[in-house]
Amino acid sequence: MTNAKRLHSLRRAFSMDDGSVSENSRLIASRNDNNHGYQSVPITPKTIARFRSADDASDRLPIGDGRRARLNWRSSDVFTNRDAQYDADANNLFGSGIGERVWYDNYTTIDWLHDSVKDAQRRKKVHSIKGIRGKAIEALDALQGWLIVGIIGVCTAVIAYCVNIFESRLFDWKEGYCTTYWLWDYSFCCRDVDLEDTCPTWKTWSEVFRHTSVDSQNIDHLVWTVVAVILATVSCLLTLTTKSVPPNTNQNDNLPKKVTYLAAGSGIPEVKVILSGFVLRGSLGLRTLIVKAIGLTLSVASGLSLGKEGPFVHIACCVGNVLCRLWTKYGNNEGKRREILSASSAAGVAVAFAAPIGGVLFSLEEVSHFFPPKTMWRSYFCAIIAVITLKMLNPNGTGKIVVFEVSYHDHEWKNPEIVIFLLLGMLGGVYGALFCKLNMMWSKSFRTLNFIKKNPLLEVLGVVLLTAIVTFRNPYTRLSGPELVGELFSECSNDVGGHGFCGWEPSVIPGLTGSLFIALAIKIILTIITFGIKVPAGIFIPTLAVGAIAGRIAGLLVQYAFFNNPQSSAFSACHGSSPIECIVPGTYALVGKLFMIQSRLHLSLAVIMFELTGSLNYVTPLMIAILVSKWTADAIEPNGIYNLCIDLQEFPYLETKTTRDFEGQLSHILARSPLAQISTLDVSHSWSLRADLIREKLNLVHDKGYNDGGFPIVRDGLLVGYIAISELEHALDIMVAGHPHFPISELMCQFGPFDDKVIENSSIESFLINQETTDFRQYVDQSPISLSKNAPIALVFEMFVKLGLRYLCVTENSEFFGVVHKKAFLAYLKKEKEKGP
């Protein structure tokens, strides 16, 4: 055979047009049994391999053979490890020019563009099926999203039901137990007893141990404290089992490694980071879900100043993430997975507040990075299913999903009250901003002490002891968070609760407001030092209680003024009515919920309150007060508590909801980026590069702490492609494992078409066997997005935000100049922010 014919045969065997493989591709496999897993010529890395575990993904050492890995994926469920090949089920991604991917490593960014093209290729394959079968497959494909969010809604509601049931029982066991059935809580045990009467079937611990010489109140206090400590301790110990050490991105290995606990806190900062496009391995896993649910039940039952509403969002997203693994459409596409997670977060808020519309707005306003109309409707469907399911389960036995549902249908706000509402809004903004600052000061001072960092259980023990000691003696702080808020929101009438918060006579109001002021101070201090301890903990209910107490105090003071000056012009709208009928302190407590403004949930929180009260009479004053509260909080502290937590934990997060003033050009970022100085893969002389030289470049990147980067492929000064570090390592490891008898210096990596001159001087067999060349082109992004080095920083920001880029190549006069990765851009923004204006 002539050289021309040999060349033509090789080109046919290695065609890039359709990815097909001819009989010539079997030449290597027929001579070496180790290569049976490869299916292209020259030797191509196996398309399927598995990591030992998600935590060991950085090692990139494949285990098993390709056939076994494929079988494991086909029979996979939520408990199995994922395949290393992220695009194993994709259709012709190599031919699309974007290249294939492996699973994203921990603390790396996803490629939104790649996942979008990947889903388009999948849809194209589905739509290519003709006939009735094709229509049925298309319908099932479209139905998958609705089906999975519906299941998520049901599962989230069931988990919320279990948490509420067990939490209420454990909380009441601190005071006593039900003699009828010891598993019942107080409300269910005494459901047929009037509020004013003593419940004969409920035994307090002082009644159980009445034969001792110790004072009965001291016995109750002792048992209250002991049970609280036990519950908080177990919750903390469970949380500590989710310890995670993020990959070190510092060049100095002597610096202490940062430790995070996946089930600690509210989980909303982690959800925000994940939905923005970063990967936090384990944060939404099955183990985190189980620990979070159990730990949350125990921590809330202990009486700590925390809530379960924020963690419900985390739990719902864990449910969504786990269920996504059952559908390859979402399980094998990180971009599509995040659409489901956005809907899941709406379900978490819905089961917490019985507010499906508020849940959708929360997902849009607070956590979601990408929220198309399709995701909005699925979020609403998920939230509706969750609320209906929880309503049917009836966890409180009253038909109400949350215990502080109230109604103000018979009351209208008076014009003079708008002044009080505005003052409450301003006060709420001040408190929200100061809470953020004080909580961060506490976290950066006390929690950075060595003995606290090494022993987080000590902080939990200290906080729960302090909480049990100071809250027991106050009748208001002794209540659970939802019960306290429910009483503060309630009206003062003969058939409704709130009797302990009502000023029936003017002589009662001074003492009542004094007790409420003490409760307010206790709640503020405890909430500041509690939020951030290593237990599952939310911030909604504690701050809602603080605002409701402040609002109730304001309402009582207005009532007191009316008692003493009924003829004042300020109360002209109340002439003919009693202070109890005209002034409703519960409505002031409702406005006081603006103290939650530190979370920056402006519109969603307002809608949540409207859904809870079932009244739209207070829409106008509430919205005006929210604007005042927002302006006040932004003037003092522009960042919400969740964004501050993200900064504190050093999560990679690109804030997109705030305006920024940028100066400079793209070249300024390159001058500061250590990764930009790393050499590229230069294929000017040959499309093949030695594997040992590539390994040296990879080691250099790892030493600099940039595992989320990649290498631009340059030929004669022009940018011809880009390959990410994760894909390059994956291909190298498989290539080396497939050639155990060859030194790495003799292995070649092919990044482009084969040189005709080299092939023409040798036979096909000698070229394929002796060169030991492995094709890496399937992992190369052949269409990287680039921008001129003179582009303004504002344009760079918009491209990273709007396009979801993982990296941005930089050119100068059409020639390659450098590359900016998302993490390098984040580091640049952080330095600019620290410099100040």
UniProtKB/TrEMBL annotation:
Membrane topology value: Multi-pass membrane protein
Domain of life of the organism encoding this protein: Eukaryota
PROSITE patterns assigned to the protein according to its UniProt record, in alphabetical order: CBS
Gene3D superfamilies in the cross-refs: Clc chloride channel
Subcellular location as annotated: Membrane
Pfam families, alphabetized: Voltage_CLC
GO molecular function, one term: voltage-gated chloride channel activity
TM helices/strands, residue ranges: 145-166, 222-241, 340-364, 418-436, 457-476, 514-533, 540-563
Keyword RNA-binding tagged: no
Domain CBS: 780-835
GO cellular component terms, semicolon-separated: early endosome; Golgi apparatus; plasma membrane
Predominant location: membrane
Keyword tags: CBS domain, Chloride, Ion transport, Membrane, Transmembrane, Transmembrane helix, Transport
InterPro entries for the chain: CBS_dom (IPR000644), CBS_dom_sf (IPR046342), Cl-channel_core (IPR014743), ClC (IPR001807)
Family: Belongs to the chloride channel (TC 2.A.49) family.
Protein name: Chloride channel protein
Protein's organism: Neolecta irregularis (strain DAH-3)
Taxonomy of the source species: Eukaryota, Fungi, Dikarya, Ascomycota, Taphrinomycotina
